[in-house]
Amino acid sequence: MNELHLETSPYLLQHANNPIHWKAWNANTLELAKNQNKLIIISIGYSACHWCHVMEHESFEDNEVAATMNTHFISIKIDREERPDIDAVYMKAVQIMTGHGGWPMNVVTLPDGRPIWGGTYFRKNDWINSLERLQEIYTEQPKTILDYAEKLYEGLQSLSIISKNDSENDFNFEILDSLVSKWQKSFDWDFGGMARAPKFMMPTNYEFLLRFGYQTKNQTLLDFVNLTLTKMAYGGLFDTVDGGFSRYSVDLKWHVPHFEKMLYDNGQLVSIYANAYKLSGNKLYKEVIEKTLHFVEKEWLTIEGSFYSAFDADSLNADNQLEEGAFYVWTKPELQRLLQEDFDLFSVVFNVNAFGFWEHENYVLIQNQSLEEIAKQENISLETLTLKKKYWEQILYTEREKRSKPRLDDKCLTSWNAIMLKGYVEAYKALGKPNYLDIALRNADYIIKNCWNPEGNLKHSYKNGTRGGAEQSIAKATINGFLEDYAHVIQAFISLYEVTFDENWLQNAKQLTDYTFDNFYDEKAQFFSFTSHQDDPLITNHFEVEDNVIPASNSVMAEALFKLSIYFENSYYEKICRQMVQNIVPTVDYPSAFSNWLNVLLHFSEHNKELAICGIKALEYLEKLNKNYLPNMIIAGNVSVSKLPFLENRFSDEETLFYLCQNKTCDIPTYDFKKIIKEITAKI
Fold this sequence. Notes:
- Mean pLDDT is 94; it is low at 466-473.
- The relative contact order is 0.08.
- It contains 25 helices and 23 strands.
- Strand 10 (314-316) and strand 11 form a beta hairpin.
- It is of the alpha+beta class.
- The longest helix is centred in the middle third of the chain and has 19 residues, at 382-400.
- Helix 6 crosses helix 7 (142-159), helix 9 (203-215) packs parallel to helix 23 (595-603) and helix 11 runs parallel beside helix 17 (414-431).
């Protein structure tokens, strides 16, 4: 009766042996609920979610709970990463009903899918009592529930309406100063990030603040971004032993993480650290990039060139029980045994003291001082301390590899793969390592071959089961792509063009963009719907416009449209991008929730420029340019005759020329690279 064994999602398969009669979300299940006139339980989570596992163990593995759920309800289990569309709609409902959201998310709906009750984590008795009471009301007072469902449905419908701004006026850039001024009041000047816990990294926020600080010469903002990136890199949010970031920290100092590692976080963080490194030359940022990408390549990169999704928060402890963080934490006796005479110095660096203590005799490694400061205090050379730190980390890595690793979510999500692809490209720009570009190109080839159908649509999820040369029988792409898949793949393909000047990547990006206009764009709303017009509709339409831990798919589309409008001299792309930004910016109250939109707004400022590099040495100059932090510059180029509208009739086989342009007007071309660099930086 539990049908989840038929699924490919690791999260759904984790629940395949529950006594609950779980079903997947599909037309047959929804029709069954209507035919039997049963309320539906929609339970949503993901494989790396600690509290999802807790509720499974306490409730969904329990026969008493199963009796209640199986008798009266149709129960549907959903992997939120596979179906972000369903998750978004019912998350809105839970937030309306309770004022907050999170996972696991559990919603009870009418047979037609309209929600009537919900929340996040429930203890066993609370869960049973709530379900029994809902069933009682539905049986004895159905009108009460139907009336509430209708009011909640109307509320959900109203949330999908976005205000329009038909003004033809130029953008008001002064709003950025007022928004940033308001935003600064929430800055944590002790540890970086926002002054609240739990503490999410929100890389899009720091991409905007870095750019805005750079373009306005606001040293305060640049210092704040540097503080935040430094404190995050000190651990324990960042795994200094093997690289990679956890999803968030439960405290203010980025110390104790919620230990799951997610692909999308690490892809975006590599990008922001790469950009910050280009601006600052901070060696710590380089270390973070290299360690993170080494981790990703070692643990998540498949033979086909795709990336797996996540590592679980939980792993087996010494007693063979699943425990959050068991893989990552250390006891003092362990560290003393491993480090011996170096233990005291190690304790100073990584705070084996009250600052680094977590719970139950466990320490989470975290720095609170730079190596330069510690070397001076301890009267040793920086070179010696740096070498010791690497040596200690290797000792701990070797020991930790003996432990049971966190569970792997081995599905490959198209949007998250594209985010990681872009991270590799940005790292290649900053550090120039050919291997980074090779991996990015392999991943792009994987997306084209396995996720992009001949009919023109992308698939959202791919499961191949390939790891370390071992093959499983599952190998298929499932679920029609969402806007996030198109937006991030388009952005990733543009980024590949930015380092290769291979125009095929721009043509691929344009082809996918035109597909999104045909299948996602809503002329009435003036935004792109999250789900394709080809898919069965949910209870309400969803337009993703708020930037979160991943930027909103509409803001990513807007950024891509702006760049493509220049490359292809496409006025329609520019018009739609401008309209989207005009609709959003006047509504912004909390800039942290719209930071990528604000970044797109900056594209329209007087600081934004375009540069064409045309000639046989174009790629040599491109590599030099890409090592600079130039967020306000869109770069194109060719090493042979090009038909790309922006480059047409600009190639010379005698010399390499630079065309610096702004607002559709270009300066007289020059062959002097030093001069063009000077002009670019002088006009910031």
